Amino acid sequence: MPTFYSPERPDSGAGYAQLVIPQLDLGPVEIQTFGLMLALALIADGLIVAKRLRELGKPVDWAYEALVAAGVGGIVGSKIDWMLQNPDQAFGGSLADAVFGPGLVFFGGLLGGALAVSAWAYRRGFLGLALLDLGAPAIALGYAIGRIGCQLAGDGDYGVASDLPWAMAYPEGTVPTTVEVHPTPIYETLAMGMATIVLWHLRGRLVRGVLFGLYLVIAGVERFLIEFIRRNETVVAGLTLPQLISVAMVVAGSGFIAWRMRAARVATA
Question: Do 181 and 20 meet the contact criterion of CB atoms below 8 Å apart?
């Protein structure tokens, strides 16, 4: 059930109505809201990929094939990443709990999904820069919707303690806390939602490959900054593991943009 807070209740979150719904109970069926948002993210990605494929003169059915590849590869990759980062939780119980229990990591999902879609694209003869640009707004949109699932589930992706007016507690989340914290999933949904709009607007307007490089830079900067108010432990030079990956994304994206722009200048010289 939704949890609503009021000033009369302890840990009320400054009197704002706050929503945490880890699961929906529909009679004999229980639906996890994180899984529901994951499914919606894949559907939304399929729709915009289909539209872009139509604009490129490619078969629209490819969108559904790529969707399946991205979904399977992304879930497998994100689960493996989580298990490697949380071995005590992943391997402390049964294998079934490790595989089918909670725990997904975006960067692992991004890598797994990218490998699976690349394999699909190779089979279709579509592996190249056009594929990278096709994926840029779709990945951003999927991330934004996925973070809605994190917010609804209260799965521990929230930030550190905060006294800001919109800070909230997650006492009924899957990783509960009664301390008011930064609702970082909401921040990320807003940030990557805006990034999706920008990337979609720029489709077909830039040198081929630049759109994907721009996605890497935007996503890297966004995650690097949000990590300062998240709860992840630092590993090197005061930075968390996601921040180190974010730095690599920004460097790779910047280098990719520079390479593609230089190639375009040489081609037109």
Answer: no
User: Comparing C-alpha atoms, which of 119, 128, 124, 181 is closest to residue 150?
Assistant: 181
Residue type for 253, please?
G
Q: Average pLDDT, stretch 130-159?
A: 94
CB neighbourhood size of 76 (10 A): 17
Q: Poorest-confidence range of 23-37, 189-203, 244-258?
A: 23-37
pLDDT of residue 1: 34
Give the pairing of strands 23-26 and 29-32: antiparallel
Give me 155's structure tokens: 């799965």
Place of tokens 């992706």: 157
> What pLDDT is attached to residue 239?
96
**Among 152, 182, 168, residue whose Cα is nearest residue 20:** 152
Q: Which residues lie across from 159 on neighbouring strands?
A: 230
